[in-house]
Design a protein that fits this description.
3 helices, Ribbon_hlx_hlx
């Protein structure tokens, strides 16, 4: 197993992690390990949407509306 060191962690964050760990009945190290594991395994929403689009045949045929509006300066008066 690998180890990491986190430097410069705000004291309030450390206190909050300690409180969460106590609430969950585990060490602070186990709490941080669980948080990092869950965060790393969470699917990336953009990649998940791309995967779903590919599963249904892609999005290459979707119509793209033309942009025919003209930019104008804002009037603040």
């Amino acid at each position: 197993m690998s180890s990491i060191i986190v430097r410069g962690l705000d004291d309030r964050v450390k206190q909050q992690l300690a409180a969460q760990a106590k609430e969950h009945g585990r060490s602070m190290e186990a709490e941080v390990r669980d948080i990092l594991t869950k965060a790393a395994r969470r699917p990336h929403i953009g990649m998940a949407l791309l995967s779903v689009a590919r599963d249904v045949g892609g999005v290459d045929e979707l119509p793209t509306p033309t942009r025919d509006d003209v930019a104008r300066a804002a009037d603040f008066e």
